[in-house]
Amino acid sequence: MEPSFFSSKTNRTLGSLVLIALLVSLIAYAGYTLKQAKYMYSGPTTITVLGTGEVKATPDIGQFNFSVMAEGEDAGSAQQASDSKIKTIFDYLKNNGVEEKDIKTSFYNLNPKYRYENQLCVEGQYCSPNRVQDGFEVNQMVTVKVRDLDKAGMLLAGVGDFGATNISGLQFTIDDTDILKEQARAIAIADAKAKAKTLASELGVRVVKMVGYYENENGPMPYYGYGGDMAEEAMVKNASLDSVSVAAGENTVTSNVNITYQVR
Predict the structure, then answer these.
(1) What angle do CA 224, 228, 230 make, to 5 degrees?
(2) CA distance readout (Å), 60 to 28, 63, 104, 105, 152
(3) Are 262 and 49 spatial neighbours (Cβ–Cβ below 8 Å)?
(4) Would the pLDDT of 251 be above 70?
(5) What percentage of the chain reaches a pLDDT higher than 70?
(6) What is the H or E stretch that residue 31 is in?
(7) For 48-99, what is the HEC assignment?
(8) What distances in angstroms separate CA 103 from CA 6, 64, 130, 220, 253, one per listed residue?
(9) Following CA atoms 19, 22, 26, 32 in sequence, which dihedral angle do they give, to the nearest 10 degrees?
């Protein structure tokens, strides 16, 4: 009978130890779970949607660039020669309806220019050419806005007749885009609201309120018309741009918005 007593006591002890170990494990697991839960996101549920809006409009201005280059024995004479050419071109533009505010010098550079002279060298040896200053040169670039688009082609050719060079391509754009941007933004916001309503319905939730907004605007893309190499080629051939049909086309102003909504 005594061995049975000790065996029963031992089993009870072992059983108690197992229960204690199990309880300690459960307590440790509960503590770990609570610790992990502390780092989990517990804020409101949100959805983010992208809205896009576009507004198309006909350009109201044309714009082109040209350069004037002049040379002189000294800086003063080079500047005078450049000023004389520029004044002639400016007068031509103003006489054809271009306002002074729409003619802007965007670049001006005055530099000495050089020529290279060969030197007498000892036979069998190389001598580099000698650089000698040979006066000054002025390079001036001008940007012109044309509000009467019917005259754009004529003006592009006309400045070349008065000594302008490096005439860049004519581009058409919109002078004041603020109203168009507002219209495009309103369309984008309405688009985002509609998408949020549809998404919330599909997810089985309802929109509570807006909690975030970000806007990415894109300006109007300019339309490039007749100009550049084609313009210079036409002038070389004494061709007139008056007879060329210059199409202003249509520009698009785009607005993209990201809106975040809280849902339940």
Answers:
(1) 100
(2) 74, 10, 18, 22, 11
(3) no
(4) yes
(5) 78
(6) helix 2-37
(7) EEEEEEEEEECCCEEEEEEEEEEEECCHHHHHHHHHHHHHHHHHHHHHCCCC
(8) 112, 10, 41, 22, 26
(9) 140
Beta strands in the chain (DSSP E): 45-57, 61-72, 103-117, 130-146, 171-173, 207-218, 223-224, 251-263
- Predicted confidence at residue 226, as pLDDT, reads 47
Looking at residue 241, its pLDDT comes to 42
CA distances from 78 to 92, 114, 127 (A): 22, 14, 32
Give the pLDDT confidence score for residue 227 in this predicted structure: 45
Residue 245 has pLDDT above 80, yes or no: no
Distance of CA 155 to the CA centre of its chain: 29
CA distances from 155 to 62, 111, 159, 241, 247 (A): 11, 29, 6, 9, 15
Q: How far is CA 179 from CA 51, 56, 146, in A?
A: 19, 12, 21
State the amino acid at position 73 in one-letter form.
E
Checking 195-200 for CB contacts under 8 A at 24+ apart, the result is 195/49, 195/50, 195/51, 196/47, 196/49, 196/259, 196/261, 199/47, 199/49, 200/47, 200/261, 200/263
pLDDT, residue 12, reads: 72
Please state, in angstroms and rounded to a whole number, the distance separating the CA atoms of residues 221 and 249: 11
**pLDDT at 34 (0 to 100):** 60
| pTM reported for the whole predicted model | 0.59
